[in-house]
Amino acid sequence: MGHDSHAARSPLDTRELLDLDRRHVWHPYGPMPGRAAPLVVESASGVRLRLAEEFCGRRELVDGMSSWWSAVHGYNHPVLNEAARAQLESMSHVMFGGLTHEPAVRLAKRLVDITPAGLEHVFLADSGSVSVEVAVKMCLQYWRSQGRGAKRRLMTWRGGYHGDTWQPMSVCDPEGGMHELWSGVLPRQVFADAPPPGFGAAPDEAYVRHLRETVGRHADELAAVIVEPVVQGAGGMRFHSPAYVRALREACDEHDVLLVLDEIATGFGRTGALFAADHAGVTPDVMCLGKALTGGYLTLAAALCTPRVAAGISQGEVPVLAHGPTFMGNPLAAAVADASVGLLLEGDWAAEVRRVEEGLRTGLAGAEELPGVTGVRVLGAIGVLQLGHEADMAAATRAAARHGVWLRPFRDMVYAMPPYVTGDEDLAAVCAAMRAAAAEG
Ligand SMILES: *Cc1c(COP(=O)(O)O)cnc(C)c1O
């Protein structure tokens, strides 16, 4: 089809589109050619996705996923549209080497203002995984600049997820696919046990000792500890006590190890605090942001660090951070991100997330009685039904769609993290769909 440039201009009928998609387009974690037909989305507005054709009797689905944690304000938002349009009129992109611009500078200042005190320097990257790569590079280079190049391993706890490029993969949960597939290829990192579950649970003293001991034992080879604070997302949607994040901060300080908090999923209000680190009252040495940063409009991420890390690198043997993506600081993405964070701060995000949390708690109450469901957990705008078995993704997706909701269960759970603007009725539909997906998937 590549030879016929006009073919792309006339609209594709849905059959043709799906056929081309199957033959030519990779989807996340998919085979080639694709086996399961995806749904074709025509447009999206508010909390609704409009499909090109009916699926399970529905043309529109309430989005229970916020497009993987990102679309916190919903789709086609007039303020974000206007920010994008206005920026497009002046420039979509210019290189960041030797040039700068207002959208990137405004956004960086805003991020410094709202993240935990002490984070002052912002590296803008194109995706969450790349921001984790940059965070790791910062930490390794910091120690090398101090003449301590042996400190180049990472420690994390089990059950985490930090992205799909190499350094992030090496600190994802070692159980399951990627580590087994890539053993001998991935850098070997230090793993502590998974944090005991429960956001409100009393901290387990034995586990705190285990964390401290693991940091202490490996201190000479550790550049950094990297974890998702409070909520482990794609590794299993588990919540834990902020006390463990504090324990890591203390252990890292005691043993001269840097602390990286990956807030790519948890940032911008999702857990009920603006950043999950705020639950713990902790400032990391490096913090990664992504996903909801642009309100789900464009790909953008950031790695923020403290003056200590920045100075350590910049006064070292190679006194620069050798990283510079082509689309670094993309003005279009930065302008939308600035508008999205502005929208969050100007509205009452905390009350909205609390309302969503209440809706999820009410709608999922008693769901642990359903056959196949072993637990229910809700924190902020995140709701999870834990299953006692692997979810049948296709069956669960259809069951949710019959209730007019888009859900994408994975592993052994059905979960939702709806946009903060989801109305109460739509929230009730999301919960009903989760129950149905758990029962049928
Ligand atoms: C999604 C995610 C990433 C990776 O971000 P991408 O933009 O998909 O590369 C990293 N860490 C966490 C905690 C995430 O949820």
TrEMBL record:
Binding of substrate: at which residues? W68, Y161, K291, G324, R408
N6-(pyridoxal phosphate)lysine modification sites are K291
User: Enzyme class, one word?
Assistant: transferase
The cofactors it requires, by name, are: pyridoxal 5'-phosphate
Spell out the molecular function terms from Gene Ontology: adenosylmethionine-8-amino-7-oxononanoate transaminase activity; pyridoxal phosphate binding
Cellular location(s): Cytoplasm
Looking at the UniProt record for this protein, which Gene Ontology cellular component terms does it annotate, in alphabetical order?
cytoplasm
* Reactions catalysed according to its record: (8S)-8-amino-7-oxononanoate + S-adenosyl-L-methionine = S-adenosyl-4-methylsulfanyl-2-oxobutanoate + (7R,8S)-7,8-diammoniononanoate
GO BP terms in the entry: biotin biosynthetic process
The cross-references to InterPro entries, in alphabetical order and at most eight, read:
Aminotrans_3, Aminotrans_3_PPA_site, BioA, PyrdxlP-dep_Trfase, PyrdxlP-dep_Trfase_major, PyrdxlP-dep_Trfase_small
Subunit-structure text: Homodimer.
The protein here is known as: Adenosylmethionine-8-amino-7-oxononanoate aminotransferase
Which species expresses this protein natively? Streptomyces abyssalis
